């Protein structure tokens, strides 16, 4: 099971960043996980193997190492 942790951003970033979070999982689930939009853009940095993303045509591709999503 993965580890999800939330942190307050440093004071210098608080005008623009509401939350910093990390997720780490040594054995991620092979199940497709849907992520509903929440109105919050995210800068995602994969420090390990990126996740696979399913495109509209059903094809899976590796996500880039750094993504701006939202």
Quick rundown:
The chain has 70 residues and is mainly beta. It has strands at 3-7, 20-24, 42-45, 52-54, 60-62, 66-69.
Can you walk through the features of this model?
This protein is mainly beta and 70 residues long. It is 0% helix and 34% strand. The chain contains no helices and 6 strands. It has strands spanning 3-7, 20-24, 42-45, 52-54, 60-62, 66-69. It is globular, with a radius of gyration of 14 Å. The two termini are 25 Å apart.
Largest sheet, strands/sense/barrel: 2 strands, antiparallel
The computed structural class is: mainly beta
The N- to C-terminal Cα distance equals 25 Å
Task: Name the shape in a single word.
Answer: globular
Order of helices and strands: EEEEEE
Query: Can you list the strand order of the major beta sheet?
Result: 1-2
Can you give the helix content as a percent range? under 10%
Summarize this structure as a short list of keywords or feature phrases:
mainly beta; two-stranded antiparallel sheet
List the helices and strands and how they pair.
Blueprint lengths: L2 E5 L12 E5 L17 E4 L6 E3 L5 E3 L3 E4 L1
Antiparallel strand pairs: 1-2, 3-6, 4-5
């Amino acid at each position: 099971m993965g580890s999800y942790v939330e942190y307050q951003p440093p004071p210098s970033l608080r005008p623009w960043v509401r939350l910093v979070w990390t997720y780490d999982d040594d054995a991620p689930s092979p199940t497709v996980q849907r992520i509903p939009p929440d109105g919050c853009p995210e800068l995602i940095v994969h420090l390990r193997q990126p996740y696979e993303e399913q495109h509209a045509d059903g094809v899976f591709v590796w996500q880039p190492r750094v993504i701006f999503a939202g």
